[in-house]
């Protein structure tokens, strides 16, 4: 790669060469904070570098996304269990498709993932897929108590569904929980146990919580090539499962700090946070969502919640916009007048 062909400050070019970053793909493997540590550049310098390489990468749309768009099943969507949030996503998560939900700790990512694990079990006329879910935990224990609470509150959350339909669903029996403490275990899970559940029709939703945990803990900055190889292998497995079994995949992701005023269109304009793992991972997902949490409180009845906002960061069929929400006893629901 001839970095001199980019319209970059010579100081940035020298730093990139000194860090032995030889291609745009190598740069895309790192987040902004990783690039700062690797190159010694300032926030603004790294911003210029990322803007330059992002512009180059967007000239060539990622093949996995194109394949999913071509094979998408007649606009089939998996409901989020809330009509307000479904309206933001034009019905819910695309089926098939690999979607990402990022956000800080406590933003409500796992809450929404649990809600989807229940929503997928409803009949199709109520936004479900008549099947269960497999939930892969890579860092924290599965929140079983919160799941049980959500199950008990389904009649309050899903007022659009007849109570007898809800009573006939065996929610907890249809959620299969896996724990993967390392990449090898995750790979075995995705290549053996998950395909078996999908092939038997026992599940129709795959959740990975979180995708960044293992890639951040098992690799140093100097291991970028191996990390990229493992990341693409992981992404390829997700796309294969999604296409083969017409299944939505949701990947929970962590976030990194980025620069104020960034014009990177893959990031939300209302936040100084960006999903972890860089643009190399970003090019592997079809839909990118971010959950934000604010200090402001919202109230409903005798409940109160910190204000959340679900942002559409990127999706080929959606506009970049957001919807205010709250996390209530019965689940995550949109807030029309926060």
Automatic annotation (TrEMBL):
It comes from the Eukaryota. Residues 74-255 form the RecA family profile domain. It is found in: Nucleus. The keyword Membrane does not apply. This is RecA family profile 1 domain-containing protein. Belongs to the RecA family. RAD51 subfamily. One of its GO terms (molecular function) is four-way junction DNA binding. It comes from Channa striata. Keywords: ATP-binding, DNA damage, DNA recombination, DNA repair, DNA-binding, Nucleotide-binding, Nucleus. InterPro entries: DNA_recomb/repair_RecA-like (IPR016467), HHH_XRCC3_RAD51B (IPR058766), P-loop_NTPase (IPR027417), Rad51_C (IPR013632), RecA_ATP-bd (IPR020588), XRCC3-like_C (IPR047348). Signal peptide: none annotated. Its main location: nucleus. One of its GO terms (biological process) is telomere maintenance via recombination. Pfam families: HHH_XRCC3_RpoA, Rad51. One of its GO terms (cellular component) is Rad51C-XRCC3 complex.
């Amino acid at each position: 790669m001839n970095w001199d062909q980019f319209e970059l400050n010579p100081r940035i070019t020298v730093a990139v060469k000194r860090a032995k970053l030889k291609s745009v793909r190598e740069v895309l493997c790192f987040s902004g904070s990783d690039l700062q540590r690797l190159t010694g550049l300032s926030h603004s310098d790294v911003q210029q570098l990322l803007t330059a390489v992002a512009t180059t990468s967007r000239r060539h749309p990622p093949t996995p996304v194109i394949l999913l768009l071509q094979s998408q099943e007649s606009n089939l969507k998996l409901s989020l269990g809330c009509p307000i949030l479904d309206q933001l996503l034009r019905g819910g998560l695309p089926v098939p498709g690999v979607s990402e939900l990022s956000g800080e700790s406590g933003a409500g990512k796992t809450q929404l993932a649990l809600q989807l694990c229940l929503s997928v079990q409803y009949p199709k006329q109520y936004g479900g897929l008549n099947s269960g879910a497999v939930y892969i935990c890579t860092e924290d224990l599965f929140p079983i108590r919160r799941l049980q609470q959500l199950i008990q509150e389904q009649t309050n959350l899903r007022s659009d569904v007849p109570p007898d339909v809800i009573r006939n669903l065996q929610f907890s029996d249809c959620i299969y929980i896996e724990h993967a403490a390392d990449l090898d275990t995750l790979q075995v899970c995705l290549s053996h146990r998950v395909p078996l559940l999908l092939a038997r029709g026992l599940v129709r939703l795959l959740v990975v919580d979180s995708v960044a945990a293992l890639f951040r803990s098992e690799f140093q900055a100097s291991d970028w090539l191996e990390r990229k190889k493992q990341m693409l292998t992981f992404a390829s497995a997700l796309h294969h499962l999604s296409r083969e079994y017409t299944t939505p995949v949701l990947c929970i992701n962590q976030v990194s700090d980025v620069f104020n005023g960034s014009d990177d269109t893959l990031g939300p304009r209302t936040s100084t946070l960006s999903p972890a793992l860089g643009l190399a991972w970003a090019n592997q997902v079809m839909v990118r969502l971010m959950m934000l949490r604010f200090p402001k409180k919202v109230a409903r009845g005798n409940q109160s919640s910190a204000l959340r906002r679900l942002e559409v960061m990127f999706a080929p069929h959606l506009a970049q916009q957001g919807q205010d929400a709250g996390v209530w006893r019965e689940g995550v629901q949109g807030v029309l007048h926060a």
